[in-house]
Amino acid sequence: MNKAILIVQCPDQQGIVAAVSDFLYQNGGNILEVDQYVDQEAKRFFMRASWDLDSFSLKKEEISNRFSQEVAKEFEMDFTLHFNQPKTRMAIFVSKQSHCLFDILSRHHSGQLEVEIPLVISNHDHLRDVVEAFNIPFHHIPVSRETKAHAESEQLRLLEEANVDFVVLARYMQIVSPDFISHFPDRIINIHHSFLPAFVGAKPYHAAFERGVKIIGATAHYVTEELDAGPIIEQEVARVRHHNNVADLVQIGQDVEKVVLSRAIKSHLDRKVTVFKNRTIIFY
Amino acid sequence: MNKAILIVQCPDQQGIVAAVSDFLYQNGGNILEVDQYVDQEAKRFFMRASWDLDSFSLKKEEISNRFSQEVAKEFEMDFTLHFNQPKTRMAIFVSKQSHCLFDILSRHHSGQLEVEIPLVISNHDHLRDVVEAFNIPFHHIPVSRETKAHAESEQLRLLEEANVDFVVLARYMQIVSPDFISHFPDRIINIHHSFLPAFVGAKPYHAAFERGVKIIGATAHYVTEELDAGPIIEQEVARVRHHNNVADLVQIGQDVEKVVLSRAIKSHLDRKVTVFKNRTIIFY
Amino acid sequence: MNKAILIVQCPDQQGIVAAVSDFLYQNGGNILEVDQYVDQEAKRFFMRASWDLDSFSLKKEEISNRFSQEVAKEFEMDFTLHFNQPKTRMAIFVSKQSHCLFDILSRHHSGQLEVEIPLVISNHDHLRDVVEAFNIPFHHIPVSRETKAHAESEQLRLLEEANVDFVVLARYMQIVSPDFISHFPDRIINIHHSFLPAFVGAKPYHAAFERGVKIIGATAHYVTEELDAGPIIEQEVARVRHHNNVADLVQIGQDVEKVVLSRAIKSHLDRKVTVFKNRTIIFY
Amino acid sequence: MNKAILIVQCPDQQGIVAAVSDFLYQNGGNILEVDQYVDQEAKRFFMRASWDLDSFSLKKEEISNRFSQEVAKEFEMDFTLHFNQPKTRMAIFVSKQSHCLFDILSRHHSGQLEVEIPLVISNHDHLRDVVEAFNIPFHHIPVSRETKAHAESEQLRLLEEANVDFVVLARYMQIVSPDFISHFPDRIINIHHSFLPAFVGAKPYHAAFERGVKIIGATAHYVTEELDAGPIIEQEVARVRHHNNVADLVQIGQDVEKVVLSRAIKSHLDRKVTVFKNRTIIFY
Fold first, then answer.
1. Which residues neighbour A77 within 8 Å (Cβ) at sequence distance 6 or greater?
2. For residues D250 and A192, what is the distance between their CA atoms, to the nearest angstrom?
3. What is the C-alpha separation between C242 and D46, in angstroms, rounded?
4. What is the pLDDT averaged over residues B129-154?
5. At residue D281, does pLDDT exceed 90?
6. Chains that touch A (3 or more CB pairs under 8 A)
7. Which of A91, A94, A97 is nearest to A205 (CA)?
8. 3-class DSSP state of C146
9. Mean pLDDT of all residues in chain A?
10. pLDDT tier at A133 (50, 70, 90 boundaries)?
11. Which of A85, A198, C74, D224 can bridge D230 by disulfide, Cβ–Cβ 3.0-4.6 Å?
């Protein structure tokens, strides 16, 4: 199905749902989904609506302009408009660990993720074989303290060439620079292997073991300049026991990491995520 | 806050969201929540909207009529209209087990449940003391095979006298008759101590133990004529191990039962549940 | 059943299980449960064994001495010996919130918790009625900055009079002093309303909301001098969404708090918890 | 580490733990894990113990005989003895769906599963490329009603040639014959895509949708002659909502299936599963 998705946020007031739904109705739009949320404290309104483009009387190219004129201006809306065709293009960054990468590739292979994966970039060459077995180009760009700036410019060049929409750090294990982030605001998804805000930074499973927690977790979030502090998209947990050592936590955690990251990618692809004040609204 | 809640279902077509939201907007309604769902297979549309009554230009008494004339007829809608004031009135039926009853009374006591509880009815006298400690009238109506019809008519008389809106069977352990059910269609909530449709009927924990399941559950559902087959409102589960005997399952299960039942009551009270084809739609 | 429970820890070496189980066997002990754990890094051995006292040839009074002579000395064991009769005596401290208290009283009432509750102590008088409805003495001891030392000495006096074995802080909302703690080492259980170590200290639900987490939690731990840093006994979590405000988190969290606290109490009562290096071993 | 694992079951009586642990101690065995369970109703004792072989004074070949003579006979024990070296050999049967297969191969690739996978057998040729990319032989053996007996004999020949210890049906979608099962008693693991005993047989996600359940699940079990009725090894669940159609349930369920199956394989490989009266004991 040819689908349009509209994400809106604006100061809360009466008549917003009516105005948006009337705009869609007047142009023949068959609403597929609508979800709205009001942040009562901030007095801010958020809405996501999707509709079938086939019966819609406006051309794709003119929707944004018309909506802006006829609805958005009056309500001082920030809005973004998305289409499910052509498919979104996603780059994957990995290091040596394969569990998140394989999980994504496996879902892509089975048709579960509606996305193009034009390339995988890694600072190590370890996972080349499997990536290429899935017929996806693999780029090995080593990163050291000295070469980091140069490596990032090479990465950015590849991402631009491949016309990439967003980036997934699938246990990439490198901190990306503010400059890099600025090219993909709210469009770099990282998986952190702890239940944030617990255990920010390196070696969270060691820290979890030391603290003696009974449940570990993983967190998918958009990358911002502050480490592990960006808007949280998804979290999940798993129960552990005293007899689980650090190596056990790593293994149990991997199952959590991969499912959390895949859910976050899915929500992002379905345009169900919007950000306000470093928090995410996840539409249904 | 003085709130109105509208639940709608009708054949799916374009313009429904626009029509409903426009009706609310034209009458000064500040939409608080709106959630909609389309059953694509049945081509049926469902919607729940709530709005602030204080700024609404229609009187409570005229809303139903006006909505019927101006919107519902055109779209062949079935709809119900609810208000959060005055509070809904709930009767609780119990037998000897106290865990679900105490959980409900405790939530009511702390203000978590916006409901009046004018009475508790039981076929045993065991729980009178605690119920009365919470200042709620307790009625002991013994039930035997011979007296069942008479007991039910006595129950119905009490429910009518107390102007009860809906009934919660909090581990009542008695099968209620089709006649009794017909007085409260989709308004009797039962908690069944299994993960339905597994282990229908009596002694589900024994059956779960025999089958060697690794997870047990509980199910809150509306009561219909067929035993344990009514529309499911909520389910939850808990993990068990081989070393848990039937008595352990009973105890672990009680924690699940009470939380499931309380969530179902909350959803029902918030008018977030509607039924179609023996399945529930649970709005957000 | 008349049951003895032995908890042992010592440097790891060969023959410990054999020595303990042989001691029990030679004295006619029918082993009911045995669970052991070796901390491979610390080279430390932990074991819990329980057996039926009725067929045991040693008197309760002499077991400890005989075990010490015949087994513990050789293996440099720290051990504790417990009996399920007479019942352990537990004091509950509360403030104004009732959800954890009611949950404990309800389990006690239904026979789920094998414990005596000789008293409830509170810094407010709010919950007197319900506590007394369960026939448990309620002591109101107001606490202010100025009267805190005096209040604690009064609390300690009551606990001593009542011959209390351990204390449960069921959302007591007051920080207890190091002196108070020293009277009950690893015998004061607190429920903290966050997923520790995230959100230590006051107002964790506010902090969780601000951070935009997708899952909240609660943690039961033994109280030590450092705030919210004692050995964790149990944790549990619940999923939340962007549309849940702080008040919602409080309500969702209460269901988690009460189940976590009750599980921790159960584990403590069953003598299934032992502490090593600020972490708990939870035996099966 | 060179490890031996002993699984024992016998009528319950005093002295079993002492006898087994003494046997190990006398022969220099450093016990790594010991877990025991008594089925109080059946008066049956179960135990799993593992120990380090390097310091053990008996040769691998003589342990079974010596244990039988010195311990097992007296207590009428059924026992099995396992070693972690050489690695267990596992065959995977698949059909067209890849999610469980990829998950297993990915865990194997990352070293998480200590197992040899000498072959994958499928009734379709769809997944050959990926299997071979992981350097595992792939055998396509078509199965129709007419050719089934012949196909099974071909499968059995391959399994024997490859010296396979156990078989995993990773969404194989074919019913295997009693004769086939008899070659691998309690050594064929199947993943069923429902929360058994709910929704036995074909199309469980359709049935779950029809019934309107709020939670779906998956079950890993040993295959026995009666369909989907064998001893359950592991179960897990996932929450669904009314707006999830059958295709959604399939997708959500796949994440559950793969994690359940992998956990069951891990438990089986670690020799932590034993069967009694169609129920499993899962040791720690």
1. A8, A9, A10, A71
2. 28
3. 48
4. 94
5. yes
6. B, C, D
7. A97
8. coil
9. 96
10. confident
11. D224
Identify whether the C-beta of residue D51 lies closer than 8 Å to the C-beta of residue D32: yes
Q: What is the mean pLDDT of chain D?
A: 96
Query: Which residue, chain included where needed, has tokens 């429970």?
Result: C5
CA dihedral over A174, A179, A182, A183, signed as positive or negative: negative
Alpha-carbon distances of A14 from A31, A79, B31, D41, rounded to whole Å: 20, 18, 7, 66
Could you tell me which CATH class the domain B3-83 is placed in? alpha beta
* One-letter amino acid of B15: G
Q: Are B139 and B91 in contact (CB under 8 A)?
A: no
Among B residues 212-251, those touching chain C with beta carbons less than 8 Å apart:
243, 251
Cα B117 to Cα B82, B86, B109, B137: the distances in Å are: 18, 13, 11, 9
* B89-282: CATH architecture: 3-Layer(aba) Sandwich (3.40)
- What token pair was written down for A141? 């760009």
Q: What is the pLDDT of residue A64?
A: 98
Per the annotation, the verdict on D39 as an active-site residue is: no
Side chain identity at C189, as an amino acid letter? I
Catalytic residue among C103, C165, C186, C228: C228
Distance from the first to the final alpha carbon of chain C: 19
Cα B138 to Cα B170: distance, rounded to the nearest angstrom: 14
Give, for A26, the enclosing helix (H) or strand (E): helix A16-26
Residues of A within 8 A of D102 (CB-CB) are 102, 106, 109
pLDDT (tens digit, 9 = 90+) per residue, D20-34? 999 999 999 999 999
**Residues with Cβ within 8 Å of residue A265, at least 6 apart in sequence:** A90, A104, A113, A115, A168, A189
pLDDT band for position C245 (50/70/90)? very high
Which of A255, A261, A267 would you mutate first to test chain D, the one with the most D CBs within 10 A?
Answer: A255
**Cα–Cα distance, B11 to C17 (Å, whole number):** 70
Rounded to whole angstroms, the Cα distance separating D91 from D113 reads 13
Output the CA angle A48-A54-A57, nearest 5 degrees. Answer: 85
Instruction: Count other C-beta atoms under 10 Å from residue C67's C-beta.
Output: 21
The per-residue pLDDT for B183 is: 98
Provide, as residue numbers in chain D, all residues whose Cβ is less than 8 Å from the Cβ of C30: 14
Compare all CA atoms of chain C with the CA of B97 and give the residue at the minimum distance. Answer: C110
Nearest alpha-carbon partner for D219 in B245, B217, B213: B213
In the chain, the amino acid numbered C176 is V
Residue C109 C-alpha, separation from nearest chain D C-alpha, in angstroms: 27
Cα distance between residue B36 and residue B19, in whole Å? 13
Buried b (16+ CB within 10 A) or exposed e, B53-91: beebebeeeebbeebeeebbeebebebeeeebeeebbbb
- Number of Cβ within a 10 Å radius of residue D188: 22
Domain with CATH 3.40.50.170 in chain A: 89-282
| pLDDT above 90 for D133 | no
Condensed to tens digits (0 to 9), the pLDDT of residues B234-260 reads 999 999 999 999 999 999 999 999 999
| B284 contacts B35 by C-beta, under 8 angstroms | yes
Strand pairing class (A89-94; A44-52):
unpaired
Report d(CA A79, CA D206) in Å as an integer.
38
Q: Which residues of D touch A243 (CB under 8 A)?
A: 284
Token pair 């016998």: residue: D10
- What is the total residue count of chain B? 284
* B44: phi then psi, degrees, rounded to nearest 5: -125, 140
Q: Return d(Cα B119, Cα B152) in angstroms, integer.
A: 15
Per the structure block, which two tokens stand in for B117?
A: 């509880």
Average pLDDT of the segment spanning C128-138: 91
CATH 3.30.70.260, chain B: domain bounds: 3-83
As a whole number of angstroms, the distance between CA C33 and CA C4 comes to: 11
State the nearest Cα–Cα gap between C205 and chain A, in angstroms.
13
